[in-house]
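Appendix B. Raw example, untouched.
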Amino acid sequence: MASSGIDLSAATWRKSSFSNGTGGECVEVADGVSGVVPVRDSTRPDGGVVVIGAAAWGPFVAALKHR
């Protein structure tokens, strides 16, 4: 159970296409969690999870693409 109170025990995590095998930029997101997008460090899967509202996810990703 994540500290946010959202049960992520059955979450399906996928690694970002920008993650690499050398330990850098290792971000995973969980699909299929209603209303939110859980994000974690793939090198520390038992570590913390940042939970972003689904409505904020699109603008967040768009802002990163324009960097």
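End of appendix B.
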